[in-house]
Design goal:
Elements lengths: L3 H17 L2 H18 L15 H17 L3 E5 L2 E6 L4 H22 L21 H10 L1 H23 L3 H22 L6
Antiparallel strand pairs: 1-2
Helix pairs in contact: 3-4, 4-6, 5-6, 6-7
The structure holds heme C.
Length: 200
């Protein structure tokens, strides 16, 4: 079993070397971009290639929350009044594959959140505390005024999910529990800045 420190140190090394090696893939991506632009017409805006009609709220509910829950609930005990009832952990190849798919979905949902022009939607309000969350137009304005912070939370979510993905590929149960729990800091951090109104 691994302790948390070597896992994170390894993850940092991996992410640094990925950054250093990023030049050739970028060049290749921009070649593809140019080819697409030629097909689509010389003046087209690359952002127009994306369909951003799915709102941030819908992405949270459809992909981000269910994928994160899969990871967070992968290893757990179901306890009843009579004692431990079930000891749940991934066992079959299918279990591990499902976890892998959830981690990949979460990383890619992060990319979807990074696409400019993503629409906001009206989250259902809690009737008892209608003012606890920002309205869509306020969230939009906050994202525009602090885009760097928005991106940082997404990168954080992707970083810890990528690390979790590595533990899944190694079938490292303890690592999976530790690293998947760390993803939650990114969720909470972003919600505290962009979703919940302060002092509510
Ligand atoms: C980059 C910022 C950001 C990150 C990272 C983020 N969220 Fe969100 N999330 C939001 C915003 C903004 C809203 C509110 C959207 C709205 O009201 O339109 C939201 C709303 C939600 C909702 C509310 C759904 C509802 O119907 O009320 C859930 C659930 C949620 N997020 C789960 C998560 C989980 C789980 C994670 C981490 C795995 C996460 N989010 C990461 C920005 C983020």
């Amino acid at each position: 079993m691994k302790s948390i420190i070597p896992i994170f140190a390894l993850a940092l090394l991996t992410s640094c070397s990925a950054e250093q090696d990023s030049e050739p893939p970028f060049a290749a991506a921009s070649d593809t971009g140019e080819a697409l632009q030629q097909t689509a017409g010389a003046n087209s805006n690359p952002d127009e290639y994306f369909d951003t009609d799915t709102s941030v709220l819908a992405l949270m509910n459809a992909i981000i929350q269910p994928s994160a829950l899969e990871l967070w609930q992968a290893v757990r005990y179901v306890v009843t009044a009579e004692g431990v009832e079930e000891d749940i952990r991934p066992q079959t190849d299918e279990d591990w594959f499902r976890l892998q798919a959830s981690a990949i979905s979460l990383i890619e949902a992060g990319n979807a959140l990074l696409i400019p022009g993503r629409v906001m939607d009206n989250a259902p309000l809690d009737p008892d505390y209608p003012d606890y969350q920002y309205r869509p137009e306020e969230i939009q304005a906050l994202v525009e005024s602090d885009a760097e912070s928005w991106r940082t939370y997404i990168k954080q979510m992707q970083f810890f999910t990528r690390t979790t993905l590595e533990t899944i590929e190694e079938k490292d149960l303890l690592g999976l529990m530790e690293t998947s729990a760390a993803i939650n800091n990114a969720c909470q951090g972003c919600h505290a800045e962009f979703w919940y109104r302060p002092n509510n």
